Protein 1
Amino acid sequence: MIHEPLTLFCYADLSGQVRGKGFPTRLLDKRLKSGIGWTPTNLMFTALGTIAPSPWGPHGDLTLMPDPATKVEVDFEDGAPAERFFLCDVTQTDGSPWDCCPRTALKTAVEDLRRETGIVLRTTFEHEFVYSGAETRPGDMYGLGAIRRHGAFGETFLAALHAAGLEVDSYLPEFGSGQFEVTLPPVEALAACDQAVILKEIARATAHRLGHRVTFAPRVTPDGLGSGVHIHFSLWTEDGEPISFDPERPFGVSDKAGSFLAGVIRHMPALCAFTAPTAISYLRLKPKTWTGVWSNLGYHDREAGIRICPVFGPHKKTARQFNFEYRAADATANPYLQLATIIQAGLSGLRDGLATPQPTSGVDPETLDEAERNARGIRRLPSSADEALAALEADTAAGSFLTPALTEAYLANKRAELDLTREWSPEELCNRYAAVY
Ligand code: GLU
Ligand code: MG
């Protein structure tokens, strides 16, 4: 059959959905310069197939401008069309920044942090997902047999990630039925977000070619376990020296990292509106599920809002490995906005010279009395998307982490999506979101 290679220019929208427009690949050189047309109201698509009230209505035009560094071309050599796409900034038609572009919001946060403090973040997004083609059985967690019985998926996925230019750190069968996890090595913030988007699309593309699907939804059933997105980060100088670790200080948390973390923790309830933004996010964020329901810094604790992660191997490597993990996050969010708002919150902590939060170690914040929690700045994170959006509205500083237009559009979009879900049972939430993510 004849075929014309097709390339798509795309972006991750407010729900993390990847959307864009295509053209014949032979016109790529021209398109790399000109981009492709886009419409402001497209930002108001919800993940559930509706359009939230749009401040732009039918008016205006924009451009999807590709970043050549994000080129993905993966031929699975199965005779089916290759995956060919680029990730884009959404710009004005003259190429100047659009104040509602999520990727631009991240670039702004990265640049604010660098300019004001000389600090560069290194990040990786750890993803869990469920593969429909896995032949599952009880007791499969971390099982060698689980890898064997999920067939060609794992190796094809890893090969496709490699072909897309992504290095893989680890791949494993997770705790849930048919659940797997993939982690990439840390890189600078923008590349980490681009990779998070590419990784999920490549997982979907791989499953599709095998006649199955993957879902990154935070829950596939109301009971059992969820799929999280754990956002790892560490602080570095512009010259590439690690600055998160200080062996002289409690738990090794440097003064600078402590201020950054204190800023994140101060704004964490509001940040949940960006990191865990949907109704189904709160089916996952429950106590005793290895997620993160408190705004605590926890030493080697998988139920901390932010975990101080372990390091492995010789001590001289400690400073380069030392990192923190934000756990109250999932894949119904936009990764650029997740990280942009975490960076802005951390930067606010650095600006204010906040003291390092007192970490918890071997203790569930639930068991501390309220006075003790207050003394450590530990608050219960929102337990619903409504609470998360209200926390964002109540936190005026967090309300200015993004441009006013983007914050306003974001809130309108999330409200509209949340309103659609109000009558849905937990089962229906799971089914609907598993279909979309
Ligand atoms: N599946 C858990 C979550 O929803 C995390 C398990 C783990 O620590 O890797 O975040
Ligand atoms: Mg995991």
Protein 2
Amino acid sequence: MGSNLARNLASREGNTVAVYNRSPERTRVLVEEHPEAGFIASETIDEFVASLATPRTAIIMVQAGAGTDAVINQLAERFEPGDIIVDGGNALFADTIRREKAVRETGVNFVGAGISGGEEGALKGPSIMPGGSVEAYKTLGPILSSIAAVVDGVPCVTHVGTDGAGHFVKMIHNGIEYADMQLIAEAYDLLREAAGYTPAEIAEIFAEWNTGELESYLIEITAEVLRQIDAKTGTPLVDVILDQAGSKGTGVWTVQTALDLGIPVSGIAEAVFARALSSKPAQRAAALTLPGPSSAWSVTDKEAFVEDVRLALYASKIIAYSQGFDAIVAGAEQYGWDIKKGDIAMIWRGGCIIRAQFLNRITEAYAADPGLVALVTAPYFTDAVTAAQDSWRRVVAGAAQSGIPTPAFSSSLAYYDGLRAPRLPAALVQGQRDFFGAHTYKRVDREGTFHTLWSGDRSEIETEGSSH
Ligand code: 6PG
């Protein structure tokens, strides 16, 4: 990804790009393979720093973790006040907050920038989510705008917010990516297991869906993956891929962070758990003999079923994005970032893995009402879920009855019903907590905090607040 980003930078008018890699051989190969880039190559970090015009700007593209700290320290020792170090990897935002503070004390700017779009995006135009100081962005903004994807003439980059805001938003992007991918996978599984479609047929269904409101990069590539025939066996590639999903960890961070922030991210969490479950071969082998439902789903009207699955996918996707943006709002509040949700949706319209026509609708929703308390309550999305909910319920119920696992579909529906319920069983939970722990409760009809004397005469007393 680093090489492609360097090539992208070098391909833009007015940019001269210096390159350095801890392994000189990799630098040599890059320069030899791309003479058109006019790279200024260095074999040592000192040579590299000396080759940069001031204010120096270095973009680090290394695997998140200790390696990042090592390179940052090497540069920070050699850079001067006003220079800029950019971490373009998937660093944990908390690490970026720490690093930005430490480097800023030397007068050097440190920017954690989420860069989304994979290898292709890095070369042709990613979506870029830089944090760091407003000062640094004055220099960095034009450089990043010159390489970002462009949608309707607008580069997919914005100054997300200070210190770790960029990496925080990139993390949420990845969490939404996990949910999106899981929802698509569940739709595929339903079409395969309940309606008996083949991978090739499902590819065509996804290609058709990609012409409507579900249009997106992930739907597009899903059709390509399902069309692929394995050269060795002549069977669909998807049938020879081991069904154990990996994860580099950004989805896990999203769920951990959302839990700390008290934000339900059902679809993202179920996507992370689904990957974890898939990677438990011993348990799965042992569970193979567990009984399932007595009958499989016998779909009679396949066309209607496909439309039900499409609508269930769209409704669940709306919930996943609504929850993702809730996490962004909560993170901004917690860390003191002024993150504009509409701008984030706008820069996600192109370049990134979750790029989709759908992001235009989110941009419009936040433009119409920047204070929107829940994306799903925006008129466009309320209408979409209203049109989808019967299908959504049929699909989730049918999947449960026929033993097809749809954790993201069903948890998204449960969240939707919880969000709109006028009364929740949380009232009983409060009663239970007060019974065994005297944790007190509020009342619907009076101000104050109360406790029932469960082990005494069961009268209710007013208290000053919950006990520990
Ligand atoms: C992107 C992607 C990328 C992600 C890889 C692997 O925005 O370009 O989100 O950053 O790290 O796709 O992610 P997982 O291994 O966690 O699935």
